[in-house]
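Dock pseudouridine-5'-monophosphate; give full complex structure.
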Amino acid sequence: MIDIQYSSEVQAAKAENRAIVALESTIITHGMPYPQNVEVAAQVEQDIRDAGAVPATMAVIDGVLHVGLEPDQLQALGQAKGVAKISRADMPACIATGGTGATTVAATMIAARLAGISVFATGGIGGVHKGAETTFDISADLLELAQTPVTVVAAGAKAILDLPKTLEVLETQGVPVIAYGQDSFPAFWSAQSDLNAPLRMDAPAEIARAHATRQAMGLPGGQLIANPIPADAQIAAEELAPVIAQAQSEADAQGVAGKDVTPFLLSRIFELTEGRSLTANIALVRNNARLAAKIAQELNNLAQ
Ligand code: PSU
Ligand code: MN
């Protein structure tokens, strides 16, 4: 096993068998601008505490995997320039070379599994990018969901992605995609899309039982819980479509590729909506954190 540095709060929670919710750090370093990124990260941690669980934000700092960050570490990570974005492929190399990196959904799931944490809240997962039929740009997040036993709560996937293809890959990979409290697959800034989610559940206890059943059957992999953005925080899909198209065509024109694509699109959409995309993003991450805290507690109840 590799060394893991637990925050004091997570260490205590583990000793007391309390429910813990994992959080990613790429959303902090590459998903939102400073200083809102640090404020949101702290707020989301507090939302999890208020909902009765303990937050564990993941990051690699100077070659050490951190499970839970102390407030000063969170602040430093949010301000640092040039932090690596680490996914499954980069994580061992970052640790081995003493690097510092923020964890994507895939890397956060890996960290959570190593730490014995089963539930993780984020904003949106990576998926199949538009144009993937020529670029082959498919996020490692999807394949991680197929092999690492963590329930990931997200607001669906952004319209910067090809949502039908994203759902197809998840189906091929045997990943349960469960919409929470509605039939349609939520589309990040919009609660509804015109796609139906393959599965629907209405209670955190059901989601916890589905997670435990998958484990009991010896199936690898986790589940994706698609939790719609609160209605009052939505941005209409029609309003965002031209913004996304513009960001995408700029990315193409500038030859942005690989792991730079998602951060580029997110920051251009933030600029083009004059920050409105961020306000919605904050509301949905907080909503996901609260649901994840409930699921983690239900899962804990099953294990007692
Ligand atoms: N989607 C979002 N916000 C994000 C990300 C995705 O709406 O911050 C981040 C997550 O960390 C996710 C990563 O795991 O981008 C996916 O990157 P890629 O598409 O390069 O796999
Ligand atoms: Mn990619």
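Observed: The mean pLDDT is 96.
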